[in-house]
Amino acid sequence: MQLLAFDYGLKNIGVAVGHTLTGTATALPLLKARDGVPQWDRVEEVLQEWQPELVLVGLPLNMDDSESELSARSRKFANRLRGRFAVAVEMVDERLTSFEAKGEVMARGGSRHYGKHPVDSVAARLIIETYLNSR
Fold it and tell me: What pTM did the predictor assign?
């Protein structure tokens, strides 16, 4: 099954593609957002290009399992994906994926600004890996 994951953010939305058959995931170029609103035409282009059977959206829970404002906005983004594009969407606990992604980027020689390394898309890749490992 082809998977597409989004790491929702207010300025950037990380994107990754993965496959259940191979158990692999790859970070894709990130999408820009303005106060959490993506360029929906770019989202549509990504969905058309990869034609996923399942879309994963990271759910940023607090360490105590409670939800934050960003959790609610991520759910809203997922609902809009479902409504606009008629795709199957699942939320995936993404606790610590951004932290892990930043560490990975830094280990590859990225700066605190992450330059060419799209940390948000690395986080999206980690969301797919979390999903695959939980199956």
Answer: 0.85
